[in-house]
Amino acid sequence: MSFDLVFFGGTGDLTWRKLMPALFQAFRHGKLPEGGRILAVARDDQTDERYREWLKERFREVEAGKRPSDEEFERFAALVHYKRMDLSQPEHYQGLKDWLDARNADTVVLYLATSPHLFTGICQQLGAVGLNHDKVRVVLEKPLGHDLASAQEINRTVRSVFAERQAFRIDHYLGKPSVQNLMALRFGNALFEPLWRRESIANIQITLAEQLGVGTRGAFYDGTGALRDMIQNHALQLLTMIAMEPPASNDADAIRDEKLKVLRALKPFTRESVSRDVVRGQYRAGMCGGQPAPGYLEEVKVPADSACETFVALRTEVENWRWAGVPFYLRTGKRLAARDAQIVVNFRPVPHQIFPGASLPNRLVIKLQPEDGLELQLLAQKGAGAGEQLTPVSLDLDFDKAFATHRVGAYERLLLDAIAGRLNLFVRSDEQEQAWRWVEPILDAWAADGNGPRPYAAGSWGPAAASALVARDGFSWAEEQ
Ligand code: BG6
To answer: Is 133 a catalytic residue?
Structure first.
């Protein structure tokens, strides 16, 4: 199967930091289909050769294990081409179409790795020159909109040019191996599904913690904040994977229909519930990962009086028969105590205790990063004699060790899926809009609340109010147990 993969924003950060290295990994491991061309499109006037040299330099900044040798780069670079385009010029789209038509590959993937405000203009121009025919797929990077209205506007334009099955909306968390394993865990094993409900589960915690600050992205981040950057997309997508009903098949729409139902069942926020159930924070200077870290307001291109949140913790519920009354806690933040993304499923305690001492309920930890695995916490007896208290033990499965072969990274997975036309791990427009609909009352309540975010020290687990949020229900965050 021949394919042409075009990166709009061909000299941008996303292209050289994530997309090209991911493609190179696919190439190195023989996963990239034969007969492919990769075309970087950007405004600079340069040749294929100069672009390849530039890309080679950029690869030096990629983590060592993922860097090509000179010989590997030569072979990979032979697939890479460059085309100058001014995205506001209709005739430049015609030039692109001519370039693509000259080969007439089986599949054309147009990846919009540009600033999202260009998406509608690019899609319209692509449509105008006929670059929306059956063989074409368009990949849209997040952030897809800033609120419901802007997301709907983008979707309207995309829909006026492409069919929904041609639109691949990326949420790179869905490409992470452990997230795919979540589907396998729930729907490939009979063990957990009978327990996966309110009768056995006390609460579920989704934590996406980062140690990094906003770095050089201050200007972008300050107009975005943690709720839009991480909760509206990544955290909610994880929640849908945890809470969804078993889909009838592994088809994209069967899965996405079930995810949408979860989003629709999320308890809507009101002004009162936002002030009770949502905590926003902003980091101050502190020690993070053993290094002194500046506060958010000292970061480059961040206004000194910014009220942008760099931390969010919230409590919600999925209002249906399976989950009624089970709290789902979602938490994300920059400059936290650890880089740690995980989902913790806390089971209910045993109904009747026959062993001495306090009983610890079972817990399933789905680890997304830095490790990628599963940990099931149980209680056991050491055999030390009568009257012994039970001891917590864990069944620990490290997927990297269990599957010694190369594990496909998130962008690599998603790029290969876009080329192959598999939509399972991409977000449908109705899911995305529903997520905005749910998040908006929080944004509105914050806009009307002059109190602003609560400060927390860099290197901590966020404001104390985040612990209080969970403690109110008689629970605690995983690291506090
Ligand atoms: C991106 C956010 O979507 O995800 C970033 O815009 C964040 O702010 C990143 O740092 C986290 O991704 P990962 O894969 O490193 O957890």
So the answer is: no
Q: Could you tell me if 80 and 52 are in contact, meaning their C-beta atoms sit under 8 angstroms apart? A: yes
Measured from the Cα of 410, ligand 1's closest atom is 14
Q: 127 C-alpha vs ligand 1 centroid, how far in Å?
A: 31
Ligand 1 center to 338 CA (angstroms):
14
User: What is the token pair recorded at 169?
Assistant: 């909306």
Write out pLDDT tens, residues 127-155: 999 999 999 999 998 888 899 999 999 99
Nearest CA to ligand 1 atom 9: 230
Residue 463: what pLDDT?
A: 98
Helix (H) or strand (E) holding 210: none
What's the token pair of residue 168? Answer: 């691949």
Nearest CA to ligand 1 atom 6: 229
Q: Which atom of ligand 1 is nearest to the CA of 233?
A: 3
Q: What is the pTM of this model?
A: 0.95
Tell me the C-alpha to C-alpha distance, in Å, between residue 192 and each of 235, 243, 313, 319, 324. Answer: 22, 13, 27, 21, 19
Please give the distance of CA 459 from its chain centroid, rounded to a whole number: 22
Per-residue pLDDT reduced to its tens digit, 332-370 = 999 999 999 999 999 999 999 999 888 899 999 999 999
Contact 262, 206 (CB under 8 A): no
- Residues 92-116 have pLDDT tens digits of 999 999 999 999 999 999 999 998 8
Mutate to test the pocket of ligand 1, among 63, 144, 172 (most ligand atoms within 8 A of CB): 172
Whether the pLDDT of residue 283 is over 80: the answer is yes
Question: What is the distance in A from the centroid of ligand 1 to the CA of 161?
Answer: 29
Which residue among the candidates 92, 117, 234, 406 is catalytic per the annotation? 234
The three-class DSSP label of residue 369 is strand
Going from the Cα of 172 to the center of ligand 1, the distance in angstroms, rounded, reads: 8
Q: What's the CA gap between 317 and 362, in Å, rounded?
A: 21
Residue among 325, 336, 245 nearest 289 (CA): 336
Contact (CB, 8 A) for 199 and 321? no
For residue 49, give both structure tokens: 């050769």
Ramachandran region of residue 378, left (φ > 0), alpha (ψ -120 to 50) or beta? beta
